[in-house]
Amino acid sequence: MSWSFHGKIQLGGLLLSLLGCICLCVTTILPRWKTLSLELNEMETWTMGLWEVCVDQEEVATVCKAFESFLSLPQELQASRILMVASHGLGLMGLLLSGFGAECFQRVLKRRLCLLGGTLEASAAATTLLPVSWVAYATIQDFWDDSIPEIVPRWEFGDALYLGWASGVFLALGGSFACPPFLTIRPKSSLGISAGPQEEASCLLVNPLIS
């Protein structure tokens, strides 16, 4: 059996959404949203994430300490925690609904599930790109702040920010492919009778991705 063109689009959207969700989890957990290198001690590097701050010393194990209070975090990190957790829920729900929609045999229900799944995936992309970009903007503002003495070390972009941007792009593409334009309601004949056998009222687990 060969995959139809439409089926390949939906399958590609599901794979992109899954990849986006995986990158999203890594971005949220990874304590490398910001990095700081000390000129006086080049063997020591500080990294900061949403949940903890770590000190990486060469030839010595990395030591991490969780933030004691949510209110002690900078404003952008507080908002990032909330938005990233929300994006997890939106991304997972969108992926599940898109998967059910791809397996659905009933045309109208299939279209609704895919449309809702794609919308949730797009929302997850927005709630991912917003906090990542906000933290990046705040880091740039602090880096070029003239009120801070030049001798004071400056935070720079961490690897998690780049992974977060990639995650948002994957989720956005996956959401757009989840409900392509070909998902339209099948027209009825002029006599008001369907040309083929009537579709079931429920979502059957018959895979329409295979032609």
From TrEMBL:
Q: Which residue windows are transmembrane per the record?
A: 12-33, 82-101, 113-140, 160-183
UniProt keyword annotations, A-Z:
Cell junction, Cell membrane, Membrane, Tight junction, Transmembrane, Transmembrane helix
InterPro entries recorded:
Claudin (IPR006187), PMP22/EMP/MP20/Claudin (IPR004031)
Annotated membrane topology is: Multi-pass membrane protein
GO terms assigned for molecular function: structural molecule activity
Main localization category? other
Q: Mind naming one GO cellular-component term on file for this protein?
A: bicellular tight junction
Q: Does the keyword Transmembrane apply?
A: yes
The keyword Cytoplasm appears for this protein: no
The subcellular localization recorded is: Cell junction, Tight junction; Cell membrane
The residues forming the signal peptide are none
| UniProt family annotation | Belongs to the claudin family.
Q: What is this protein called?
A: Claudin 25
The organism of origin for this protein:
Bos mutus grunniens
Q: Which gene encodes it?
A: CLDN25
